[in-house]
Structure formats: structure tokens, C-alpha cells
Amino acid sequence: MTKKQLSILGLGIVLSRVMFAQDSDRVVPNAVNIPIVSESRPTSRPEHPAEIVYYADAYADHYGVPRQLVYAFITQESGWKPRAVSAKGAAGLMQLMPATAAHYGVTDPFNISENIGAGVHYLADLIATFKDWRLAVASYYCGSTYPQKRGLRYANPDVVAYVRAIQAHYSKELMLSSSHQNTQGVNP
């Protein structure tokens, strides 16, 4: 395993050491030892379905990606709708393109666990490849060809808008999780 200290989306927020597993080129998300969610499991995010939050948290922790960043992607990509499909054919909560889903062993892109597992794994791979969260986010949106060639000079307006949207969602999620932590254990 390698440890990498990363700054996210140019916000200057330095994350704690992030661990990335050295996996084979093809990983079946269900091979990860994540137990199936119980319907009665409480969630720290009552505004979102408990099953989605459970798998988002479990895979974020497993792949070393901040939970809030995973929430930001789910918000931007599908609006927390497990059966979302884009005009270009991306499917599920993390809006996986068919080739990406196949690469990560997804057999049902609408299966919450498979979709989130593959999407978070893909995001972790991009972060490890680019070492810059902005380029990883841009590559998630448009593929890695142009961000890899142009780096931070890549200025496609749609991609720039997407990176900014993820940044805004991520900032909001950080504030929500911070305010949630501040209210834990406080009796009204």
C-alpha cells in the first residue's frame, strides 16, 4: 500500500494520509468485504436513503476517499436516484459509462452496492493517477485523455463547470458534516 497526502480541489484542505490498495487491473466491487445493509440501520444523513449512505460510507472508507466527496459525486451525477440514466448512457448513482462499469466488474449498474463500489474505486484510481483532485474530477467527467495531456491548462467550459459543481457540493457536504459533528451528543 502507498500513502499519499492530497489537497482537494485547490481548496487548500489537506486531507489526512489516504491509503490506496494495490489491486489488480480488474476488481469486482462485490469482492470487497462490505456486508449487505440492514433496512433498519440508522443513518447520519436522514435526507438521503439509508442504504445509499451506508454503501457510500463503506466504499469511501475502503478506498480512502472522503465520504463528503462521494456524496458530492452522487449529488452531481444522479441526484441520489439509483436508476438515473444520462443521454450518453451513463447509469446509476455514480453515472458509470458501460466500459467503466465493465472494467470494474459491474453486472448491474442499478445495483446500489455495485455502482457505488465501482464509482468510488474508479475515483480512487483517478486520484492516485493524477495526484490532483481537480484533474481526477475532470477525468471522471470526460475521461482521462485531455486532462492527462493538458493538465490544469485544460479549459473545456463544460469540464470546468463540472469541477466547480463538484467543488461546491463537496464544500457543502463538509459544512454539513461539520455541523452534524458539532451537534452530536448535545441535548436540546
TrEMBL record:
<dbReference type="InterPro" id="IPR023346">
    <property type="entry name" value="Lysozyme-like_dom_sf"/>
</dbReference>
<feature type="signal peptide">
    <location>
        <begin position="1"/>
        <end position="21"/>
    </location>
</feature>
<feature type="domain" description="Transglycosylase SLT">
    <location>
        <begin position="56"/>
        <end position="145"/>
    </location>
</feature>
<protein>
    <submittedName>
        <fullName>Transglycosylase-like protein with SLT domain</fullName>
    </submittedName>
</protein>
<keyword id="KW-0732">Signal</keyword>
<dbReference type="InterPro" id="IPR008258">
    <property type="entry name" value="Transglycosylase_SLT_dom_1"/>
</dbReference>
<comment type="similarity">
    <text>Belongs to the transglycosylase Slt family.</text>
</comment>
<dbReference type="Pfam" id="PF01464">
    <property type="entry name" value="SLT"/>
</dbReference>
